[in-house]
Write a structure and sequence with these properties.
The N and C termini lie close together (about 10 Å). Strands 7-8-10-12-11-9 form a six-stranded mixed β-sheet. The protein contains 26 helices and 25 strands. Helix 11 crosses helix 14 (about 325-360). The radius of gyration is 30 Å and the shape is globular. It has about 850 residues and is α/β, with parallel strands linked by helices.
């Protein structure tokens, strides 16, 4: 299981008064102190830096001709193609950076070369090919008559493939931002910011930003040709930049700021008038408005990435981002949304399986987590590996042998380019000298993704084991690899030993860093506008993390599924109100991937991010981490016996003397009248009781929790099943809607058991659809498989019997047991 997180607070150096006053000019509604502290911490320490950082209009972007001779060579080759009407192919990549880069070249070069006749594009299939050029794809382009390939977000190390293209009389212009080859490849031009020193304002450009710089140079070299302004491409640049998680400094920050502005302006237009109706529809589907960087990082980026993860072929995403056909874009956006829904479900399933495997590991002796499974889909392994790495504080490598038995006959690992297929955005596969791929091709290969934390250079770590690998590639924080299945144990032992030796006495622990300490009273519009000065955030300029101490939660709830076109997608999101002693008002928040019962009882500390929810039109926090406070009522072993009043199985006259209900204006206690079926229900009520006790200036009011249920009078499980079937038939016949609460009250079972019953009804031909907060039953009797229907009904009857047993137990369990177990705060 994940270890206890280590929390750290960024060292705070008080900025000088002149700097605070300079920042305050941009935050007229507040004193600007928090923003000044953050900017000073992050190296913005003079007026010129401050102005350029905040106001993109005064920033001086670099000329595309900063790339020197290579950009001139590229322009000369494109001018030759323009003059002789040669056919050009854009070779892109299947992640968000690669898709947007392809779209920028498609729209930008499309101003000079006729699309679909002179200009085409090619996106490799994630599940059959890989990142980068491959010979089969080059063959296909040669047959189409292409004489020039312009890569984007890929190609720098594809030396063999570039030579192969040259043999077919195809020139290659590489635009990329990944690892440089040892020697310049035989290309017409290579435009890669890695040739710049790290301090250069273009060094951190992503693939889409490099593509934009090439188009910018073409616009300047062939003036008066383009019909649309260059700035129309900036929204795509912003999407790719932010989705790719590059360091947003220098021109990266400038382009992202400009692009977000264009994105927001376009979204405000009616759908028919938008330049990018596909982007607008995607934003609508994810309930975003395009004015927040998180609309890209949490909305657009994951959806674009999901297509190749689920379907392999993401070529249509270029059409989605560039077409002006509203109807067509709406269709493609919905396909994209469905792929993302499927991705969420697969990711959740794999994460649960990985969590189960983690229970079998001793993390105290594990430096690098390496896990494999034959059923894991490779497309989501990088996402899950990143989650596990953050939770455990250890580099994580997840491998899949899915379809491995077919590889000897030309399975996925032998894609046209012979390269791995599970790398993420900044990853580029490269072939180790001793990979001996001709021998490996007939053997069983595992392939997967790796993610790092705690400043461990994952690429070097994996590279040291190149002799055990078939292929690998990546960068310090993410990598992809493939290896013989039989080598996995040896690889696991070797890479763990290597990291242990390099760490010495250093212990790896999951770490969360907070930037500022604030109170609940600080949360809201003023603080949000201060922190917004730092946007867009990314690597090197992360979203500010806020530490809130001695707080508590109330009104929490969660949901764990979402319907999309009849598809049920599993996910979890807890929502809550947070309070502390600084204010009489609560503040809303949410915690992705967690249930409400995971919130601690009583007082606690938390680290969160402040955001504005454009869909709900409210400011809210996103919980990042939480732990019980040292002065929590439970941690100080406060006796809970006075909190719980036992009124079970008493006559009505006796129960009438119980405390006032939770809705009472005196607020003197809470009452549970429905017999619970598990301990988590009791803990939830106890949390509510303790939260109310502290809701006014932190004063301990000794609010009581009255348990007032009676011994249940249960119907036989078979009768409950017949009642459920009868209700379903009646609702279908009358076409009436029913709420889940009405069903539960009528049948007398829990929500969890009702879900089992609904699954059983489906085998009898019932369809259950959700409409707002109600359910609609439709019955179409079918020739169901009798044994499956019988098994489903048997599961429902077993669930009812188990629930009834638990209720019988809670009707009789001693109060001392309830106090002991309900007050236990699991860690």
């Amino acid at each position: 299981m994940p270890e206890q997180q280590q929390w750290t607070i960024t060292a705070t150096e008080q900025p000088p008064e002149w700097f605070i006053q300079a920042v305050k000019q941009y935050t007229p509604a507040s004193n600007g102190l928090y923003a000044a502290q953050l900017l000073w911490q992050r190296g913005i320490k003079d007026r010129q830096q401050l102005t350029a950082f905040i106001n993109y209009k005064v920033y001086q972007p670099a000329s595309p001709f900063e790339f020197g001779q290579e950009i001139h060579l590229a322009i000369a080759r494109l001018q030759q193609a323009y003059n002789t009407k040669e056919k050009i192919a854009i070779w892109g990549d299947f992640d968000a950076d690669g898709i947007t880069a392809t779209s920028v070249l498609w729209d930008g070069l499309g101003q000079f070369f006729a699309q679909n006749t002179q200009l085409v594009y090619y996106i490799p299939n994630r599940l059959k090919e890989s990142h980068g050029l491959n010979n089969q794809g080059i063959d296909n382009l040669a047959k189409e008559g292409c004489k020039l390939i312009v890569t984007c977000d890929t190609g720098s190390t594809n030396v063999e493939e570039i030579i192969y293209a040259k043999q077919l009389s195809i020139d290659v212009i590489v635009t990329d931002h990944h690892t440089l080859p040892a020697e310049r490849p035989p290309v017409a031009a290579i435009i890669n910011p890695r040739y710049f020193p790290k301090e250069h304002q273009l060094f951190n450009l992503s693939g889409v930003a490099v593509a934009y710089k090439l188009v910018e140079a073409v616009y300047q070299s062939l003036p008066n040709v383009a019909k649309y302004p260059l700035e129309d491409l900036l929204d795509l640049v912003a999407v790719g930049l932010i989705a790719d998680l590059v360091q947003l400094s220098g021109d990266c920050r400038y382009l992202a700021q400009m692009g977000i502005q264009r994105l927001q302006e376009d979204f405000k237009q009616p759908a028919a008038a938008r330049r990018r109706p596909g982007v607008g529809r995607l934003l609508e589907l994810c309930q975003k408005s395009g004015d927040r960087p998180t609309d890209i990082s949490f909305g657009l980026g994951p959806r674009i990435n999901a297509v190749s993860r689920i379907q392999g072929d993401a070529s249509f995403c270029v059409e989605l981002l560039t077409s002006r056909d509203v109807k067509r874009c709406n269709e493609l956006a919905e396909v994209t949304e469905l792929a993302n829904a499927r991705r969420k479900s697969l990711q959740k399933d794999v994460q649960a399986q990985v969590a189960q495997k983690l229970t079998q590991l001793d993390l105290s002796t594990t430096s690098v987590i390496v896990l494999e499974d034959a059923q894991w889909p490779a497309g989501v392994l990088g996402l899950v590996a990143g989650q596990i790495a953050q939770e455990t504080g250890r580099p994580t490598i997840l491998l899949s042998t899915e379809g491995a038995g077919e590889q000897g006959a030309g399975g996925r690992e032998q894609g046209a380019g012979g390269e791995i297929t599970s790398l993420s955005s900044s990853e580029r596969a490269e072939r180790p000298a001793n990979a001996n791929s001709t021998q490996h091709s007939a053997l069983v290969l595992a392939r997967g993704s790796a993610r790092s934390v705690n400043s461990v250079d994952l690429y070097q770590l994996v590279k040291e084991q190149a002799h055990l690998l078939h292929r690998f590639g990546g960068h310090p924080f993410a990598a992809g690899l493939s290896l013989l299945v039989e080598n996995i144990p040896l690889f696991t032992a070797a890479i763990n030993q290597q990291l242990r030796q390099s760490l010495g006495s250093t212990t790896l622990t999951p770490t969360v860093q907070a930037d500022l300490t604030v109170t609940v009273a600080d949360l809201g519009k003023e603080l949000f506008l201060e922190l917004k000065l730092l946007e867009p955030c990314g690597m090197g300029n992360p979203v500010p993390k806020l530490l809130i101490q001695n707080c508590w939660f109330e009104n929490s709830w969660h949901r764990n599924q979402q319907d999309w076109q009849g598809k049920k997608v599993q996910y979890i999101k807890a929502e809550f109100d947070i309070r502390d002693d600084s204010s009489r008002s609560a503040f809303p928040g949410l915690w992705w991937g967690h249930y409400k019962d995971e919130l601690p009882i009583g007082r606690c500390d938390c680290i969160a991010e402040l955001d504005y929810n454009t869909f709900k039109k409210r400011y809210e926090i996103r919980l990042i981490a939480v732990r019980s406070s040292a002065n929590s009522a439970l941690n100080t072993q406060l006796s809970l016996t006075p909190y719980i009043l036992d009124l079970r199985n008493q006559e009505h006259s006796a129960r009438a003397k119980r405390p006032a209900s939770a809705n009472s204006t005196q607020h003197s206690g809470l009452i549970i009248e429905d017999c619970p079926t598990n301990w988590d229900d009791l803990r939830m009520w106890l949390r509510r009781c303790l939260a109310i006790s502290r809701s006014t200036s932190g004063v301990e009011n000794q609010q009581q929790l009255a348990i007032a249920w009676s011994k249940p009078n249960h119907q036989p499980p078979n009768q409950i099943w017949l009642t459920l079937v009868g209700i379903a038939k009646y609702l279908s016949r009358t076409n009436q809607l029913v709420t889940r609460g009405q069903l539960l009250e009528k049948i007398g079972i829990s929500n969890q058991t009702l879900l089992v019953g609904i699954k059983a009804l489906k085998y009898l031909g019932f369809t259950v659809q959700r409409q707002d907060r109600s359910l609609q039953f439709t019955w179409n009797p079918n020739d169901s498989v009798e044994n499956l229907a019988d098994e489903a009904v048997a599961r429902f009857l077993a669930a009812v019997r188990e629930e009834q047993f638990q209720q019988q137990y809670f009707a009789e369990v001693p109060l001392s047991t309830i106090v002991a177990i309900a007050s236990y705060d699991s860690k």
